[in-house]
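Follow-up to my earlier ticket, as requested here are the two runs.
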Amino acid sequence: MELAEKISHLLIVGFHGVHEEDEGVQRMAKQISAGTAGGVILFGYNIESPTQVKKLTGFLKKHACGQPLLMAVDQEGGRVERLSPQKGFKGFKTPKAVSHLSAEDALKHYTEMASELAEHGFNLDFAPCVDMDPLHYTCPVIGGLDRSFGHETRQIVKYGKIVMEALKDKHILNCIKHFPGHGSALGDTHEGYVDVSEQWEEKELRPFMELVHSQGVDMVMTAHIFNKHLDAKNPATFSKGTLSLLREGGYQGIIISDDLHMSAIQKHYSFEESIVKAFAAGNDMVIFSNSPAAAKGIETFKPDPLLPEKFIQVVQRAVHSNLLKEESISASFERVMTLKKNIKN
């Protein structure tokens, strides 16, 4: 397989539009058909109703070139819920609320959520969030939104496994997030640089390490937080030392960056630099949302409809100039192909 085609499978990209005749959707379909985009992510602005989104996902997936298309969404329940009751979907509890349910009731709850995702064409859910919620303060975008299952490893792992089990039963891939722990952050990486050096505790690693040892994790998403105790120069997403903790712990699955369009990245790194640093650090895949909501701190941000083509060119140039190793790109591609073998819808 050509290098460019391999690279295309290492990107999950957002787009604008809701109906198949919309310009953004038509362009996305052509990019998928051309083999320049192996995965897409939908946001609230792509979703109007159950009927509409089912048509949209079906339309895009039928353009898949050779390999299944990753059709991703953030569906945790509560405040992070793209398939929302306001748009005609069921609506689900926050992780904090679910943590008060019995294991049996939690499994039933998440099985319903997984069924709804599968019914509407999704095969990858960026969930569960397994960040800790500290006892003495609150992260505005984790604990503040009730996205955490609690402050104890045992509790987080228990309910994280239940989410993963429910998703697997409906052939939905999972992604635990945000490694190495975002719950101690006092800021929002959508808005800019966040340093957790003074708050972060090593125990925040435990849910991630216990879950990857359980062999049920499909992806691990990185956090853009900076922690001088793990890396004195780079945020976690760009830290080889931080991400190597996963490999040293035995994890052989996919490591995927959080959205590289977030202000914590965009304010400090160019498009090309962010891509090269992400792969050099050990990410297998990256996300570019093309969403202005991700780049809250950048007034000049504009979505780029030609991002997939530019992404491939950047990685190719980096390989040819020895900034990235082709063997590493190929290894990441093989991990993605292994995962795509499990896609049923």
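Run two:
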Amino acid sequence: MDHAVVRQFCQQWFDDLSHRAPVQEMLPRLASQGLEMVFPETTLFSTGDFVEWYAAVGDLFTDQEHELQRLDVADHGSWLDLDLTVIWKATHVSDGTRTVFRIDQRWTLRKGPGDQLRILTYRVGELIPVLQATP
């Protein structure tokens, strides 16, 4: 599969997370069966789990930004393995503090008809704090 198509899929996912797109726009990118999304705080096994998690994250953080820094793709025919790094910035709703983390992630995408892709597995690695220069 064309690397540009995969990069666009990932970039759109992160852009929509950053802008808090309606959850109904996120769900079509998730596998309806066999889904496993591993976050530091929980593991999701269904689109219903994702809906709950997405709402909870929206209550905890605002002004989110996701910057895709690195993307490696291994094509296995009917699925793709992705190894990527993202910079995640967010403001805590509770106290207004801003955090920035570098996070390695591993995804498996299931290919569908044409260039259709669905997230089957999504594993978030360690959140590594990124120090920012003060203005």
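The only thing I checked on run two: Strands lie at 36-38, 43-44, 61-75, 79-92, 98-111, 117-129. Let me know what else you need.
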